[in-house]
Amino acid sequence: MTQSPWDRSLAVTTDIVIFTIRDRKLELLLVRRAAAPFQGQWALPGGVVGPDEGLKACATRALDEQTGVSGVYLEQLYTFGDPGRDPLRRVISIAYYALVPSDRLELRASAAPQAVGWFALEQLPPLAFDHCEIVALAHHRLVSKLTYSTIAFQFMGEKFTLSELQAVHEIILAQRVDKRNFRKWALALEQIEPTGEERRDGKHRPAQLYRLKFPGRVEIIR
What we know:
The chain is of the alpha+beta class. The chain folds into 2 domains: 141 residues, Nucleoside Triphosphate Pyrophosphohydrolase (Alpha-Beta Complex), CATH 3.90.79.10; 62 residues, Winged helix-like DNA-binding domain superfamily/Winged helix DNA-binding domain (Arc Repressor Mutant, subunit A). Helix content is 24%, strand content 28%. The termini are far apart.
């Protein structure tokens, strides 16, 4: 069977939306493109899937090579395949989203991207391709999953207070959460445990520190 020119022009890629929380803002990681199309414009990190490479393996490799981010929670989001999403060729992209604790924000820019940086979700620069659509869907998924899973726990560092965990939920939801009900809910999940340590914040009395029982694992709750 003869392969058509159209078949040879098809590429499968991954794009990754990486969220973190710092300075009480939900932020995401972008890289500046070094080549056409959209040269010089900000975009999501990602890469072309190799002939012998799995989809998640490609996403993991792209993150490490382009940003230095590794060992984070990664979940498949959606497949984007509009024929016009790339002006140079037919590209089908499998999008992922990742969550990074704020204490693991050290980045490494490789030779490919000209720059790497964190941007507040509400103050994003113009993005290449259909990456605005991908970001919007990833944010919607994150907010929705907050109601039936422990996904927000993936934003937490090695040790944290219940107030810090509550703040993460409030930032993602963009609304206040009742303190008493939240603490009751968080402890009832049995996903965190006390470390036996405390942390003092200013003049407030010391707060108990907790850690995740199952780091890197997201539980579905009903």
